[in-house]
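Repro:
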Amino acid sequence: MEFGIEVLALLALAAFVAGTIDALAGGGGLITIPALMAAGVPPVQAIATNKLQSSFGTTSAVLAFARQGRIDFRRFLWPAVAAFAGSVGGAVAVQLVDPFVLAGLVPVLLVAMAAYFLLGPKASEAGTRARLGQAALVTIMFAIGFYDGFFGPGTGSFMATALVALFGMGLVSATAHTKFLNLASNVAALATLIVGGQVLWLVGLVMAVASIAGGQLGAHLALGRAGARLIRPLLVVMSLVLTAKLLLEPDNPLVAFVVG
């Protein structure tokens, strides 16, 4: 696919905003995936290209947390392997789904993820006693990894919520380990989708640069309370606006099904 400078600029802007939001609250894919689809990118290629651009920001975050000694690589090796394996399965599955069906399914998933970010639980700063053991951790990360390979937005939030609520981790530690687990699932999905020829390289790399810049701004804004308070509502509003644009397309299969 070929895109004009104007379209690339708008996608870069979407990636910049998504990178900023992702650094504060996660869920940047709620903006980038519908933005790519609104630009005419088919669903699987949109998911694949989003994986390319998001992998850069996740790698940067893992390196930062690793330098601070906040990631227990030994304890989280097998959960990361599970997330990797699950994500490969999800990335294979999404390529087997009829594109017409997927185009109708994506808006539903986007609305569900927007609702989760608006109404979902907020993690605590303090650690508690773990409710489940290592085997459960591996199993849960496999399941979340599958979701990440199949679709993606909200994966980091799901992982962090599980680590806090079920495995007794504090928010900072959960965030650090979530980035490591999310990197494993991102790389797995990206590699699988590259093999499937689904990645739009130019678009993905342009968006990656913008996403990294947005992540730097988000890290700065995270120091202030105002940014943290506003970010979830902003994420939800932008996601729903972009999703509404998808639904207003005359050939959207979900709308055609409901009307027909």
